[in-house]
Amino acid sequence: MMTVKFVLYTALGILLASCTAKTAEQESAAQMPTQENVAKLTPGQIRNAGIVTALPQVRPVASVLRLNGKIDVPPQNMVSISAPLGGYLKSTNLLPGMHVQKGQVLAVLEDQQYIQLQQDYLAGTARIKYLETEYDRQRSLNASKSVSDKTYQQAEADFLAQQVAVSALAEKLRLAGINPKQISVDRISRSVNIYSPISGYVSRVNVNIGKYLAPTEVLFDLINPSDIHLALKVFEKDLDKIRKGQQVMAFTNARPERKLACEVILVGKDLSRERTAEVHCHFQKYEPDLLPGTFMNAELALESRHATVLPEEAIVSFEGKEYIFVPGKDGFTMTGAQTGNSENGMTEILSPTGLQGTLCVTKGAYSLLMFLKNRSDQ
To answer: Which residues form the signal peptide (predicted)?
Structure first.
């Protein structure tokens, strides 16, 4: 009986040892490069493919925060044009998108109230001369006690009241766009000009010829785009990474290769319902084709750190994954890689780790990939 048990245990031990050895061999084989991901080339093929190897470098690489937003205009660069006294629109040639200069005539309005206002001003100016003369006469008579103080004071009050009335009429004329010094008995106009207070372009036209415009109505909306800025949406978790003065590179979806330099000028303090805040950036160079409301993407450089990097052409993409090639005695092994940020033609390598001191293919990586792919298709 003891002999049978001994034989049974011996056989079981041999079976376990055999399975363990087989598992170790399988793991070892899995760690070794397979023939499918190793490119074996002759020295002539290596020269023809232009393959160059080099050691990875350790360089400072800046982290990049990717954001999106749109072009905005500060309130002081947006102007709504209205007629302070109202009137009928006589003429205008403005269309949305037209450029206007500061001081340019935008529209001409006419109304009988402009005639009445000029009439009142001229009549008031004429009467003030009479009241001034009467005031001087009463003052002289009062000095000699020829008239009572009451008469003198009444003349003074009438003169001062007329001065106030004429000054008020002059300001109303200026408000309407009429220069009081340019009107006279022979120069009374029934129309007034509306002038542009800024240089920019017309964003909206709200009127048509012949329409009566109340003082509260907006005729035109003007925008001065010379001080446009970029308003970016930043999530709450990233706000502490942003500081005034940081550099931002902005670009549109239509032209991603055209990078526009910006600088952070203001970090918002209020969070929206989506837990985002606005970060305002100023364009370092004015671009006339940037229109308010245009959606843009942006890359904001954060603090830099040292990382292992390879040239961008050392990394190849295949079936949605990225790879690098490492030379060895059996050929060039295609190794899976995880990349990070790219800067100045160099890309951060997050994995595999410990590449320092390991030669990598820096030129001709796509030639090796094509060699492996063509071989697998045969």
So the answer is: 1-23
